[in-house]
Amino acid sequence: MKMFPSLGGLLLTSLALSGQAPVSVLVPPADPQIVAALGDVSAPRIQQTVQKLVSFGSRHTLSSEVSASSGQGINAAAEWIKGELESYSKDCGGCLEVKTDEFTQEPANRVPKPTKLTNVYAILRGSDPANASRIVLVSGHYDSRNSETNDATGPSPGANDDGSGTAVSIECARVLSKHKFPATIIFLIVAGEEQGLYGSAHFAKMAKAQGWNIEAVLNNDIVGGDKSAGQDRHTVRVFSEGIPLALTKPNLATSASSSTDTAVRELRGQGRENDSPSRELARYIGLIDSAYLAKSGFRSLMVFRPDRYLRGGDQTSFNEQGFAAVRFTEYRENYNHQHQNVRTENGVEYGDLAKFVDYSYVANVTRLNAATLASLAAAPAAPAQVRILTKALVNDSTLAWGPSPGGLASGYVVLWRDTGASQWEHSQTFGNVTQATIPLSKDNVFFALQATDSKGHRSLSVIPVPER
Ligand SMILES: [Zn+2]
After folding, report:
1. Rounded Cα–Cα distance for residues 333 and 184 (Å)
2. Are the beta carbons of 124 and 182 closer than 8 angstroms?
3. d(CA 174, ligand 1 centre) in Å
4. Ligand 1 centroid vs 162 CA: distance in angstroms?
5. Which of 334, 403, 283 is nearest to 27 (CA)?
């Protein structure tokens, strides 16, 4: 098999093999179209969105009995979000399909009686018929709560939790709808999170049942950068699951052979417990961050756990259905400003108020989300059937794969890292081939493969499975 290493790849390989620090060819080149979209992200617009959301008094899921015409409650908020997305669509000649996913949640934990839930979403349909069925999705939850789990109408401003994540999804829709991408982007805003992830669970199950090809889910929840002492204004945490939740539930396991025991045994045997699709998504975000936000000093901090202790989020609903999904959350949370009745006690202010949110921080989180969505939607599909050939005991490593479906790929990037490293460290670019050999022992490093197009848009990375 012939190989066509690029110049950058050759340079990198020689440096990598001589023990030099990782070289920037790992990081994709910045696409001017994406840079333009990021320049369009507006902190003042995000502030307006959050303040508007707060103005509905309470967006508690159980306030869905309150009529939207009162201008208060979750229905009014849903109407406003829908109208906002529709206005962006009008600006782009109807490029967004604005929809609702409405259903009745039957009584359950934290839902005392049948309750109407409405998820709102907009679809920016992919411009390439061969790639439009590929979907990347950004999400936030617009429901809010105060100290009482089931207080439907008491003030629950929910500026940070999760007005901020809602604003990220809405602002991504606004700036990305001015551009075209081969694959589809969905901007989702869900209800029912605080009562038990009911909105996202319904949406994710619908997506699974209808066979949607969702490649990545970016869930934003508490990304306000609360302005209290100890906050790191330049860091957003990205949480990702290790052992996929879907593998631990045999009835949900994605591959027919994947009984829980078999699947976990395979992960253990191959040392793949740190390379779930969600974790590859987190690593992808880290590289996108370097490509587009390095100059601003804004960075993503990968946290290798599904979520924070005692807390959960909508990414879990998608993980449960077998989709790659991560959670963005500010670096340091102020628990006086979450799930609290608005009040002052002993000079301490409680409540999730708009004044505690750092809007330029939310704008940076939005840029990181938008850059990730745009890069994935512009990129070729990930290569298929990626294998590492293990039948011969040799000290180099051969990967083989099927071509990236959809016709966008012009080449492939082999990534590798030390087994103790958290992020990919090295890469080598190849032309339009389906096999490559790297002069390193597969026993000593982890490998992955991305597809790339001629402009350097990279697919998500795929971990090879051993082929004997
Ligand atoms: Zn939340």
Report:
1. 33
2. no
3. 22
4. 5
5. 283
CB–CB of 157/352 below 8 Å?
A: yes
Contact 61, 74 (CB under 8 A): yes
194-223: average pLDDT: 98
Locus of tokens 């078999």: 262
The rounded Å distance from CA 311 to ligand 1 centre is 9
Q: Which pLDDT band, with edges at 50, 70 and 90, does 253 fall under?
A: very low
Whose CA is closest to 375, among 137, 25, 28?
Answer: 28
First to last CA, the chain: 19
The pLDDT value given to residue 16: 41
DSSP secondary-structure letter at 444?
T
DSSP 205-261: HHHHHTT-EEEEEEEE-S-S---STT--TTEEEEEE-SS-HHHHSGGG-SSTT--HH
The Å distance, Cα 422 to ligand 1 centre, comes to 27
**pLDDT tens across 222-235, in order?**
999 999 999 999 99
Give 455's contacts (C-beta < 8 A, 6+ positions apart): 29, 31, 378
What pLDDT, in 10s, does the model give residues 330-352? 999 999 999 999 999 999 999 99
Q: How far is the CA of 353 from the centre of ligand 1 (A)?
A: 14
pLDDT at 25: 79
Cα 286 to ligand 1 centre (Å)? 23
CB-proximal residues (5 Å) to ion ligand 1: 161-162, 221
Taking residues 188-214, report their average pLDDT.
Answer: 98
